[in-house]
Structures are given as C-alpha cells and as structure tokens.
Amino acid sequence: xxxxxxxxxxxISILLVAGAVGCGENETNxxxxxxxxESPKAxxxxxxxxxxxxxxxxxxxxxxxxxxxQKAVDKFNASQDRIQVEVVAIPWESYITKLNTxxxxxxxxxxxxxxxxxxxxxxxxxxxxxxxxxxEGTGSKPLDSLAYKYNGKPVAYAxxxxxxxxxxxxxxxxxxxxxxxxxxxxxAWTWDQFVETAKKLTLDKNGKHPGEAGFDQKSIVQFGASVxxxxxxxxxxxxxxxxxxxxxxxxxxxVGEDASIEAIQKVADLYLKDHVAPLSVGQTDDGIQRTxxxxxxxxxxxxxxxxxxxxxxxxxEGLKYGVAVLPYMKEKVTLNTGGANVVFSQTKNPAEAMEFxxxxxxxxxxxxxxxxxxxxxxLEKWYKDETLTRKWVENxxxxxxxxxxxxxxxxxxxxxxxxxxxxYTNYTTEFNNLLGSVLGDVWTGKTTAKDAITKNLxxxxxxxxxx
Length: 467
What we know:
By secondary structure, the chain is α/β, with parallel strands linked by helices. Helices cover 40% and strands 15% of the residues. It has two domains: 3-161 and 338-379, 3-Layer(aba) Sandwich (D-Maltodextrin-Binding Protein, domain 2); 164-336 and 427-464, 3-Layer(aba) Sandwich (D-Maltodextrin-Binding Protein, domain 2), CATH 3.40.190.10.
C-alpha cells in the first residue's frame, strides 16, 4: 500500500495550493486557527520566555521534498505567534532505521509520520503519546474507525480515511455489452457473479472466452479481473469468507482456519483455474498501474487513493473508468486504512505538538489532497452532510457524483467497512512479510494455500507474537 508513503511527500506540491483551493470555496478558511477552529490558549513555555515553542515534524522524502513541505508548514507558523514547526525529511528507505537511532539517542522529533504497520509496535514500547484526549471539546475528532488503539486507547489517528474498491474500464464493459459492476452495497456481486463476469471480459488472441471451445489460456490479450494479493489487502477475502487473519483483538492467528485458506485459494484460482486474471506474486504495490491504466484488465481491486495518485492523469489521457463496491464471498467486506501521524513520547512539548497535528490534518489545511482524490476526510460530517459531500466529490477529478458517493462515500460508512488489522494488531510487519513469502508458490500453482499455510502456521503464530 502506498497510502503511508504518499502521506508526507504527497503534501509537497498539493498542500502548497491547499489554502488557495479551500479558500476559494470557503472564505472562512483564509485564516484557520492552529487548532483547526479552536482559539489557541497561551503556552506556559511561551509566556515564560516570550519565544515560540519549536516543534519538529519528521516525514519520509528527499531534502527537496522536505523543503517544499516546510513551505506548506510555514502556513501554520504564520497563523499564530506561539509555535514554530520545522520539517525533518528522511529518505523513505532509511526512515524507520533513522527513527530508531534517534530514539536511542533520545532525539526523536516531536511529531511525525509512521508506517501503518509500525504504530502499534512503537506504542507497545512506550514510544508514542496517548492521544485519546487530543480532540476533546473541539468537535473535530476523526472517525472512531481511524483510531490506532493499543490496550484500548487511541495512540494515533489516520490522517486520511481510505477504503478498498473495485475499479473497472467502462470501454471494455461497453464493448462486451456487459453491465457495469454495482456501485451500491445492497447490489454487490457475489464472488461467483464476479468470476462469471470476468470470464465474459477475458479474451484470447482469437476472441475466445474461458470455458469456450478453443480458448487458449496462453494467449490471453485481455483479462477480466485482478484481485490485489498484497498480504494486507488479501485479508479482505479471508474476512469476507467468514475467516480472517486474527481474532478480535489481534492476539491470536486465524489464518489457518479453513475459511481463510479457502478464500486465499479462490484468489489464486482466478489465475490458476478460472484464467481470468494475470499472474501476480503479491510483491509490488502498483496494481492499478499494471491493470486498469495499462489497459490489459477490465476490473481490478485496490485502494481509493489511486483516484488521486494515478487515475486522474490516466483520465485526462482518455481512460474511462468507474468505481464499484467489492464482490463478496459470504460477508460484504472492505478494509479501511490510512497512514498515521503520531506524537512521539520523547517530546517535551506534547500540548504544542498535538495542537500542530490537529491543524495539520484538518480538512481545510489539506484540501488539495482531498480534492485530488488521494485522501478522504476524517470527520463524519463530510459523509453525512450533503452540502459538504458535494463540495468534496462534485469535481472533475472524480467519477460521476452518484456513482462515487455510493461506491466510496456511503461504502466507507457502511457496516462492510472493517479496520485493517494494523489498527489494533502488533507485529503486522513480521506477519505480512512472512505470509507474503509463504504464499509465493501458491500464486504460481506450485503448492496450495492449504499446504503452504498449514506447514508454516507455527511460524505465522510466532510472528504474531514478535518471535
């Protein structure tokens, strides 16, 4: 998933115009207060020495990206006379290593980005502040589904709301005279309907479909579907089939249950038996680029953020795509996620750190990311208030309003939306890395999901305990 990585670098140019975009549509946003609408209270530190409290914010990116992000953060610095924020840019490849080094030296930033799968682990080691009271009295608390929780208490909130969707190429559907996938949850396709539709959209070089006499699976020129099999996204189908990766609090592993194994095998069989999907070994996070944008696949699952990170450009170049709810096996399920901004426990100025963080993630201050389709808002009112929803969705960067509202806005608020496991489970990095390795031969048909998972179940359980 690239939500996390886009979190900081994504601010670089888009947030520079965020103020202009937001202000153009709502004049009340021209001078937002540091707390995203609350009147700032004087800091004891500031009052004592008359100087601004210095806060450091870490992000992954190049020095150039850091400089550009600093220009955006300067908007906050200019909005009040109490807090001064300095951006610390660290290359993506060495981000966690650098933070670990800084932690050892007691030199962590005050606030910063943290990979989704590292939040609970850092919290369990006492490295993050409890932010459960950060939004009290503000009316700007993010959705509960976006809280990273350790021991039942929020230790971070996702800076954006993201869900998994089904994308599709409208021209391919039109040419095949096949109805579009449903945008409404109550009309969601079953898995069997999804596979049968994918067969109608899969063509070999002679125009034959899977199941037809003469179909050549070795000469497919258009695939009907692609289901993203990155380990974290693959959990969707385990849950949908009545299983899952973990128990309710993430302390025990369920991936070895028959329902979980069956779901994973069904995803593999899209390539191995149904012949409707291209081979994917679950190692690269470029699924939409490889499928919908490449023009080789009619339907593909992936995250909502792709609207802004890649599909907008493709749309301008002529791609006609649509969005729909995911198909389901037994239960209707999508995963919601979002990259985290955290307050590090080593900060000497937690109140100021939290004040900046509230400002930094307020919709009016990251409007560019929202209007581009990279982020979705974190406050419920943007989903419930039609005026705000239209302000957000009714723009040329999105598919038609009714379609997007149903397949994305409403879907994100439905019972189908479940939190990704890293919101509440420790050691998901170790578990997902191991699971991805274990499943490698499943995708190519060298082994089955049952054999691969059963043989490695003890290791997967150990990974869940950090062993």
